[in-house]
Amino acid sequence: MASLAKAAKLVVFPLLLLHLLSLSAAxxxxxxxxxxxxxxxxPAQVAAFLKDRxxxxxxxxxxxxxxxxxxxxxxxxxxxxxxxxxxxPSLASRRSSAPSPAASAxxxxxxxxxxxxxxxxxxxxxxEVLATSDRNLIAHLVPAMRSLSAAxAASxxxxxxxxxxxxxxxxxxxxxxSTGRFRPGYDRVIFAPMLDFHRRTRTPFVVNxxxxxxxxxxxxxxALFRPNPGVFDPATGVNYTNMFVAQLDAVxxxxxxxxxxxxxxxxxxxxxxxxxxPGQLGVSVEDAVSYNANLIRLVNSGKGTPMMPGxxxxxxxxxxxxxxxxxxxxxxxxFGLFNADLSPSYxxxxxxxxxxxxxxxxxxxxxxVATADASLAELQNNIDYACGSGGADCGAIQxxxxxxxxxxxxxxxxxxxxxxxxxxxxxxxxxxxxxSGVLTSTDPSYGNCRYQT
Length: 453
Prior knowledge:
- The chain has eleven helices and 15 strands.
- The protein has about 450 residues and is α/β, with parallel strands linked by helices.
- A nine-stranded parallel sheet has the order 5-4-3-2-1-13-12-9-6. A two-stranded antiparallel sheet has the order 7-8.
- The chain has helices at about 45-55, 65-70, 90, 100-110, 135-155, 185-200, 220-225, 245-255, 285-300, 375-385, 410-425, and strands at about 30-35, 55-60, 80-85, 120-125, 160-165, 165, 170-175, 180, 205-210, 230-235, 240, 265-270, 315, 365-370, 435-440.
- It is globular.
């Protein structure tokens, strides 16, 4: 587990309503539906809840459980189902253009009885196969993907995509992102033909980036989408201020080295736990909200990453539920967005009825501004973060903008920090900025310069 972060911690106040996007824009987010628990509601109840009460529009299963697949019939929710790792060798075919009998049988059993009533949109061939170091599985992975794709086409389901999720252990280098490259020995033998398959079938290369498993005390804010100095990539001149984006760009750099930078990337798993072992700093409800809310906001923004501008990423948050039977540290049982009774573990704006809450008015309005004793370096870092990867609209402090004057770092930082605070969800920790931000109930607007609310 990562080492402890700095001891100072912002006191958590009751969470405020998170508006990830304008009400006219539809969220698109997926969840991983694991069932390693003895207290979960029946699949039909889960499917109805997701359809009627949430913005979740896609679900990833770690198997092909027929009861769960059947439960999503008629919901319109897209489903990713998974072939067990052990089935991979039998699915492979010696002829890349023809399916194996096992692949045809797998489709007949796990797809044909349910599709199109259940919107099966993607089949994952195994899960993190290269991390198993099983040479037999690895050697048969790409042939199995080809064979299953051929079986789907032959059965009349050519629109169902085929992929396989990867841990970031597939990379031999990733920091800074421009150095990203696949592990030697696998790059040309496994990933080049796999990426060629994805290009030809127009299917996504699926990765599971987890900043949670890569942060240190020094990089906690960098992992949680919070203001931080960033990590500079000298080869590209980009200063990365969150680890998730850096990890995606490291994968993209590895793909570009093989000539497949045009292949789509999807995020099969990523998330942050809301509880951990006693004294485990960096694991709390506040931290889970910070990571998952900003993650959802980012992947829906269409902003993309420095290496992939303008892209949206099909993303599945881990996980749908807190799974009480998962082994390992306490955190493993607290990745869920929802509790077993279908109540939210915390608010990241996924509940449809949350948009019906009344907007704050009068004294309940709050703004975020810079503290008077913030250093010039802190102020500049806050501007760079809020107006950069933080996604705030900072047009008003550009030359000629309504808030350009007074042309001081303190004034510009206060405007930028508030713009970020308002857009990110108006949680107290959105105004932390390493201790250089403070909330105020006094409107800091002046003249023609209006601070966002």
